């Protein structure tokens, strides 16, 4: 029950006003303070009263009554404070203070024992103070006497709140935590989760700002947030697009949790401007990162009207390809195999269709991609240049919906299927090309039997098991088949599966357990006029398990840590005769296998409001395993048949060679102003997997090779420095970033190398040094009728292969340009909206022509003619430039429509520029002639119909 104190106690209300601290005057009112005017023991004073009792789910109020019956003490409290509190403890002749500490430990109640009058005061959240720190009423009133209590000059003042003000508020007051005399601080940590009250879904990018200050945080993808707040009274302003804005008044007594149940909000606006993460480019500590939303490719005119986030990526600074129609991307002077491309955590080895003209991703199931080309997060590894982290959407959990498109050569469709409302869903996507009819309709007899088709399909399951558990599973398959001649059919495919379990251990720690498998293979079916028909196959398969954790220690430290393990299995190639009449002898190369693992830990450290640091280390490990046969060669001698020392056979699973070492990830950001920062980073990495190709540009039949006894892993080191600035209320973003990269043991090949179906491919390989450096400029306009970006990159990519032996030396051991070295690269993407339904888009690209090796003369030897070539990559093909235009027409915006439509009319290569794809040389009547091949040498018009329901 509630009991009132008698007149032995005096409640003093001390009010001083109109004074300032600096002038011995206060400018605000102190609220009600309990001051006890006679000698008291401390708050935790011990007494000799002992308690016994066995309580099993007994209401706290009844336990208090039982304690009163055993002692002379009386309790004073409000009954509402004890409602719902049950006690489950057993005490045997224990001290009263210890008993109270135990039964009140997990409640919001503190206690104060008045031994002189046998009274116990319970108080919710706060503390009863029997004294105040020196100087509390100003320096002139501070006592010179020494206190022996725990309340000192440095102790924060008590928490006060004027309840009279509450009647004027439209929102409720929430008390967080309870005061602890041993842990009085000026700030406390508030954590929680934001949930949509209508759907139960977590709310991402909900901004939580402290009213009257610049303290702010944003919820993550799971709706979680954390914010360090001053002790005492705070007002939170909470808002997000599509969510009803609200304010919450809280009183911070200690660290605590506050979950936010938010309602959806609708508002009629003339214009909607979304500015989520408006300062992200300036505030985040990592360098060289880009983020592309799938919707960004909607208004960019690309070949045959296809949406393609990978083509959009090539319009960003530091990212390019070897040429139009070349597969793969070159990032900051790196080779195509130096990019880690992930689709929902699983590796996709070839994310492009038809020699890079189309992406192998359904644009309607793809949410976006995070690109890391500078400071790579500590959880990723195994590649030197970049990470492309591609994510698919979660399906609609409320109703059946879909999106699709029909174009000149492709059709796409995606369906979002709710399985259990507000809990689980399925998204299914499929694409297919039907380009064969175009080839067969051309007036060219050699193309009548040509084949150029592809398809890909994806299915993703998502289930929000409960507030702490979330499960996602993705399966993907793609296949290409093309035959531009009548005798050879080229085919390649990707297959992957990933399973991810997200689990929230508590408000501070989230975990993810990931299991995935990836497979890539290609084949050639040859059916010629002679008896040489064959079927050729190659494949690589990998399986990975990863466990990662993210822990918010406090507002200044967030840890990312975990471990991963991966198993590789490679079929280096096999050839079989096709038909009984074929003269081809069957042949296969022994399979390769290896394991790769990593341990990683990183800390996102906020040192102060201006300086933030990401520091991490990743230990990478790789072991090549048998069953295999490996050669050893004489030390210091070229690897060839004449220098073989021994041939070693390894049994299945036996360790052949082990590699590994630490990878450091360090990046920092210094914030000069809220919209201007400087960033720097330094990192190193290992790559244990390589592609083998002696083509000038990457092709789908390039093979992947594991490091082994004779092929060392590639190593890379990169440093970068950048400046980032936003203008005009974040409407414009400007960044300038420079980098320098050093590489060791990069691969190249001897002239005329035979790479495929070669049991001793190391005799055809050279390993040397590489370096790349450059400056990247990006100016982006994010909003308004006219928007888009301008990017410019100056970069160099150089290799050196030096040896005392001429067969292992290229260009006399000097640095020479790589096949994808393009010093100047300019891209302009613009979109102008006339009305809400009509807009035009333009895409302009200029690049320096890539390097090439030219024949510079002929000579005759032993009655035979030979061609003399220049130094490798001494010359360049003509510069590349292209202009694309598009007209975008949206259907009307009526709400009650069966489907909403969007039509794109585009012209690719408007100027009809005959950009060379490659230059090659033939001998005609004893004369060497240069010929040029192009992919698109004329304007390519297209119209694509998109629909959504």
Automatic annotation (TrEMBL):
Domain TonB-dependent receptor plug: 306-382
Transmembrane segments: 25-45
Source organism per UniProt: Maribacter dokdonensis
Nucleotide-binding recorded as keyword: no
Keywords: Cell outer membrane, Membrane, Receptor, TonB box, Transmembrane, Transmembrane beta strand, Transmembrane helix, Transport
Compartments, as annotated in UniProt: Cell outer membrane
InterPro entries, per the entry: Beta-barrel_TonB (IPR000531), Beta-barrel_TonB_sf (IPR036942), CarboxyPept-like_regulatory (IPR008969), Plug_dom (IPR012910), Plug_dom_sf (IPR037066), TonB-dep_rcpt-like (IPR039426)
The keyword Transmembrane appears for this protein: yes
Record-linked PROSITE patterns: TONB_DEPENDENT_REC_3
A Pfam family hit: CarbopepD_reg_2
Span of domain TonB-dependent receptor-like beta-barrel: 464-909
Name by which UniProt lists this protein: TonB-dependent Receptor Plug Domain
Membership in a protein family: Belongs to the TonB-dependent receptor family.
Membrane association type: Multi-pass membrane protein
